[in-house]
Amino acid sequence: MRNKSIWFIALLLLFVGCYEDKGNYSYSESNSITIDLGDSKYTAVAGETINIEPVFTFALDSNESNLTYEWQLGGQFLSDKRNLSYYVDTIMRTQCALRVFDNKSGITYIATTEFELTEKYNTTGWMILSENGGTASFSYLRETLSNSDDFSYIESPDVYALENHVALGGKPVQLLEHFSYSSTSSNTWVLLGDAETVDLSGLSFKKEMTLSESFLDGLPTNFTPQEMAEMRWVSAVINGNDGKVYTRIKVSDKSYYTGAFLNTPLIYKGKELYVTDFVIAPFMGPGYTLMIEGEKGHQRYLALIDKDKSNAGNVLPLTVKEAYPANFTPLDDLGELEVIYTGYYRGGTSNSSGVNVFCSILKDTDGEYYFQEFSIAKMNNARSVVATPVRQVKFDIAHLVDENTIFNVAAYRESNYMLISRGADLYYVNRLTIGTDGMLVKLYKHFDANITAMDSECFGSKRLGVGLANGQFFVLNMEKDKGIIDEAQRVMYESENNFGTIKDIRYKIKSGNSWQR
User: Fold this and answer.
1) Which of 148, 237, 333, 461 can pair with 456 through a Cys bridge, CB separation 3.0 to 4.6 Å?
2) What pTM value is reported for the model?
């Protein structure tokens, strides 16, 4: 028995010794490699080149003489060079992999990154409509984001003339990005006075259609477009000369141009409407566009319906099922109050709830201002648009407002700001404090020229585009952790080019706005 125990212990020691020796041998010979490809995602457009110089970190020595390389894109061979220089000549979103083979150890090491390769202008960024040299000009700033959360911009001044080989002409009025059902790219209407209003491809910024071609019998007489709305089934345009609205019902929701605008104005309860503003709030497909209707002293809110094809183009009043709060002006009759501005933000318990909260600045005959807030739920049926009054409070901003003042409410619920421009000064207001004794109003940025355009529709409303009368364009940082961002960090980007007097700017979302839902 004792001899058996001795033999067992000897065999056990021999086994342990062999195991440890094997481990030591593996450790001493292995020269493992860690591969860094720089970014987890590379975005490029057709005609650009992606250059990647991988960084290798070796466990032992840094001798690369025994290494061979293979780059693959979407599983297909791309290159056998150490560094990659890839000219973008295809459109795809796929994985790019580098396989490094160590000929000495026989081990293959792999690193991957994502390639998003798209059409030249099928990107996110800032669209700018301006007047330059006495004529309208359309420009674009492509926006890219690095792994370090740094935004960079590539400017394409007067890109319409570049891509269409002709000037826009006319006077700048407004921009409207719009979307078709299940599309991964958008189009943009460029509204012009004294020239053809054009719809541009979101892929190339080439002209695809004019507004006059979209009407059944050409443009109505004495017509100048003021604003447009594009929904899943309904297109609408306001004539800036008389406030009349013209609509088109699309035959298919998969194309922008099926159907034609009627040459007869939109009618509600037997009367032609007089509309001053469309409030574009497309997120999560609410099923309507809010309209400000009526002349000064007789204004109200109405909804242009887009819930389904059979009811598209109908007009409904706002249905209020709850009692109005004290001092809240009825939404169907604003009396002597004038609507100066109406914006919106995504409400409800999340950005995807489909609830839109509308914020209006109202002015009475004595020059006093009021902040009115109400929400509208996503439509459950095409018979009613249900609004819930939230509050209406006095808004002491008379000293900040003149005839050229621009307002902007952050469209995303996580950003609580309202911005007010007066001349070259931009003021920040905490929307949640409006009407309280502690209302926060702060000068956010002073510019070198008057502010002429603002937009905060980018994700989270964490960046603000600002256009100036002197042709400068800025991107401001609106993301806040605790309080307002330090003044030295507020300007993220200042344009290199002068775009002329900027009339309108829009953040190009490209896809994701949800009229199609």
Assistant:
1) 461
2) 0.85
From residue 475, alpha-carbon distances to 85, 218, 442, 456, 459 in Å are: 31, 39, 18, 10, 14
CB-CB neighbours of 513 under 10 Å: 19
| Model pLDDT, residue 17 | 38
pLDDT digits (tens, 9 = 90+) for 406-458: 999 999 888 999 999 999 999 999 999 999 999 989 999 999 999 999 999 99
Question: What span, in angstroms and rounded, lies between the C-alpha atoms of 343 and 119?
Answer: 32
**pLDDT higher than 90, residue 181:** no
H helix count then E strand count, the chain = 3, 38
- Edge-to-edge strand ranges of the sheet holding 76-79: 41-45, 107-118, 92-102, 67-73, 76-79
Q: Token pair 């000219």 is at which residue? A: 87
Angle at 443 between CA 441 and CA 445, to 5 degrees: 145
- Reference 191, options 232, 132, 138; nearest CA is 138
What percent of the chain lies above the pLDDT cut of 90? 73
Question: Which residues on adjacent β-strands are paired with residue 339?
Answer: 362
Measured from the Cβ of residue 317, the count of other Cβ atoms closer than 10 Å reads: 17
SS3 (DSSP) at 472? coil
**CA 251 to CA 471: how far, in whole Å?**
41
The secondary structure of 344-363, three-state, reads: EEECCCCCCCCCEEEEEEEE
Query: For tokens 């004019």, what's the residue?
Result: 210
135 touches 169 (CB < 8 A): yes
Tokens 């960090």, residue? 489
Report yes or no: 21 and 94 within 8 Å, Cβ to Cβ. Answer: no
Q: Report the C-alpha gap between 499 and 506 in whole angstroms.
A: 15
Mark 449-484 as b/e (b = at least 16 C-beta within 10 Å).
ebbbbbbbbbeebbbbbbbbbbbbbbbbbbeeeeee
Residue 87's pLDDT is 95
How many residues does the structure list for the chain? 517
Assign 58 a pLDDT band (cuts: 50, 70, 90): very high
- For residues 241 and 224, give the distance between their C-alpha atoms in angstroms, rounded to a whole number: 6
Residue 276's contacts (CB-CB under 8 Å, 6 or more residues apart) are: 238, 243, 292, 293, 299, 339
Rounded CA-CA distance 332/317 in Å is 7
Predicted confidence (pLDDT) per residue in 241-256, tens digit: 999 999 999 998 888 8
Cβ–Cβ < 8 Å for 463, 474 = no
What secondary structure does DSSP assign to 231-242, as a single string? -SSEEEEEETTT
How, if at all, do strands 315-320 and 385-394 pair? parallel
